[in-house]
Specification:
CATH architecture of the largest domain: Up-down Bundle
Strand content: 5-15%
Largest sheet: 7 strands, mixed
Number of domains: 3
Number of helices: 17
Structural class: alpha+beta
Radius of gyration: 29 Å
Order of helices and strands: EEHEEHEHEHHEEHEEEEHEHHHHHHHHHH
CATH topology of the largest domain: Four Helix Bundle (Hemerythrin (Met), subunit A)
């Protein structure tokens, strides 16, 4: 899918799972839409739904869900901790790929106009879809909430962008917009005091707190020359926060919206709240995510906490996630399942990683079967994976070696590089088999007409070129791992020097094995200049790998 838009509507129902299901059913009925997450909250009486697709189908799914919510949810009977103004309280469009923010904003306007016209619901635009700078902020639009909007909607400055100027008793109003990715994040406190939670929220949120004369809580609010309240800024940029009490959990929380996780990432928001809470004699006990989060946010958090411990960052993705979840306390209120909460994992097509997901026995059995693939190319790539993994292991053991504490960062950098090479080579295990299958498919194409035969010949050449480039990439990456391995043999933990030796043997075999595939596949290339260049470069890479293997084994043997 070239174009990808995420939509995260918030519905004012978090307790009746049947009603929630009826709403999400409308989303799933729209072809081309993928429902990623449904996150109901009892205390907030609110459900955050996440789905993706192209802009057209996402807007259709959003409309149908908003329509169903307006039929099922009666706002006159709604109670919940979270600020709200409508059955569908807010519905943002978030451009992920293949679409600009400006384009997403135009789709938001079209969606808002349709909701106002066909559903007769007052609609306000916000963030990038709103042209009026005084009406961009969601909290300003929603101020007064459902109960206050019967009067607010009649004020000229709060006339809806679309739909009637009469407030709907049953459905309330809806806010539609286009914005950057936002992370909704709640931090748990060991207190039940909303006042103290709010004090911490004011300490950290970007807008901070109003400046008062004398007593910072009860003193007279100070204003500027224009009569606007003067604010003391908080510690964190691009963060909105309030304090509330969640009866379901029996604790107060800091409820945060991280509007730009490049400016203030998850872990820094958590740390800031921990520090401000501690100043007030309060302890953070954990946290929870509402909806989904990008993988990088949690990987960065894991690396941050490992670095604080002066431990190697060159660990697996799974281990980084584990450190992040434990450090942030994301599993305090319930199990945190990365496969259900991380955007990339939900969008990942695992069908392209068949071999990489097999057990060792299944991989060897699959290789030994009568099928020609996986074959030597995939095995060569996996030898490269093993070489990189062993080199990384020695780096991590060196970073944690007693007495070498001052060198942890030196070895951590090598381990991080090893992890990157290992991940890249692992993808090539499957890619080599895909390349072989692509050649077979090309040869099976029809030759019934001159045009068909021309198309077949072109497909064979494209497939052959790809099948040559994949093992050549294996050669390059595997040779790169030998730099790590050589350094670890020379300067790493001496107790693991034989592991470095085995790593060198694996990496050299990967280079030589992959070159066999390069040589046989270049025979099919009509572009002889390309074929000759790959062969020439391949010979050079193989020679370097053999020499490095000799050098590394000499070091290893000198130490054992």
């Amino acid at each position: 899918m070239n174009q990808l838009v995420e939509c995260v509507p918030n519905f004012s129902e978090g307790r009746n799972l049947h009603l929630i299901r009826l709403i999400t059913d409308e989303i799933e009925k729209v072809e081309g839409v993928r429902l990623l997450n449904v996150d109901p909250g009892k205390a907030t009486n609110r459900t955050v739904v996440t789905f993706v697709g192209t802009a057209e189908v996402v807007c259709e799914a959003a409309f149908q869900a908003i329509k169903k919510a307006s039929e099922l949810i009666d706002m006159s009977k709604h109670k919940g901790e979270h600020p709200r103004m409508g059955a569908t309280d807010v519905c943002p469009l978030i451009p992920i790929s293949g679409i600009s923010m400006e384009e997403a904003a135009e789709y938001a306007k079209k969606l808002g106009a349709r909701i106002g016209k066909e559903l007769n619901i007052p609609v306000y635009l916000y963030e990038n879809a709103q042209n009026n700078p005084h009406r961009k902020n969601l909290s300003l639009i929603r101020n007064g909430e459902y109960e206050g909007f019967f009067k607010k909607i009649r004020q000229p400055e709060w006339k809806p962008d679309f739909g009637p100027t009469e407030f709907s008793v049953k459905s309330g109003a809806t806010v539609i917009g286009a914005r950057d990715l936002l992370v909704a994040y709640n931090i748990n406190l060991n207190t039940t005091s909303v006042r103290r939670a709010n004090a911490i929220a004011f300490d950290v949120r970007e807008t901070g707190r109003v400046k008062r004369e004398g007593n910072p809580v009860t003193g007279k609010i100070l204003k500027d020359d224009k009569g606007n309240p003067i604010y003391i800024p908080g510690a964190l940029k691009s963060v909105k926060a309030i304090g509330w009490y969640i009866e379901e959990y029996g604790v107060a929380q800091i409820s945060m919206n991280l509007t730009n996780i490049q400016v203030t990432p998850l872990h820094l928001a958590f740390e800031a709240v921990c520090n401000k809470a501690a100043e007030r004699g309060i302890r953070v006990t954990g946290s929870e995510l509402v909806g989904l989060i990008p993988l990088k946010s949690l990987l960065d958090a894991g690396a941050y906490f490992l670095k604080k411990q002066k431990r190697s960052l060159g660990v697996s993705e799974k281990e980084l996630l584990k450190i992040a979840v434990k450090s942030l306390g994301l599993d305090e209120l319930g199990p945190f399942k990365p496969q259900e909460r991380i955007i990339e994992y939900l969008l990942n097509d695992t069908s392209t990683e068949k071999l990489a997901n097999l057990s060792l026995k299944d991989f060897s059995d699959e290789t030994a079967s009568e099928s020609p693939a996986p074959g030597g190319g995939s095995v060569a790539a996996y030898l490269g994976v093993l070489g990189a993994a062993l080199g990384t292991m020695v780096a991590n053991l060196s970073a944690h070696k007693p007495g070498w504490d001052e060198r942890w960062e030196e070895f951590s950098k090598w381990a991080e590089k090893g992890q990157q090479l290992q991940a890249a080579l692992l993808k090539l295990v499957d890619e080599d088999t895909h390349a072989f299958n692509k050649i077979m498919n090309a040869y099976s194409l029809s030759k019934a007409t001159a045009e068909a035969e021309k198309f077949r010949a072109q497909a064979i050449q494209e497939a052959s070129r790809h099948a040559t480039e994949v093992p050549f990439k294996v050669m390059e990456l595997s040779l790169n791992t030998m730099e790590i391995i050589k350094t670890m043999a020379e300067t790493g933990n001496p107790n693991s020097v034989t592991d470095a030796g085995v790593a060198a043997l694996s990496a050299r075999s990967a280079v030589m094995g992959a070159f066999l595939n390069v040589k046989i596949n270049t025979k099919s290339l009509l572009d002889r200049a390309l074929a000759d260049d790959l062969l020439k470069r391949g010979i050079a890479l193989q020679r370097i790998a053999q020499q490095m293997e000799t050098d590394i084994l000499a070091v290893v043997n000198s130490k054992i």
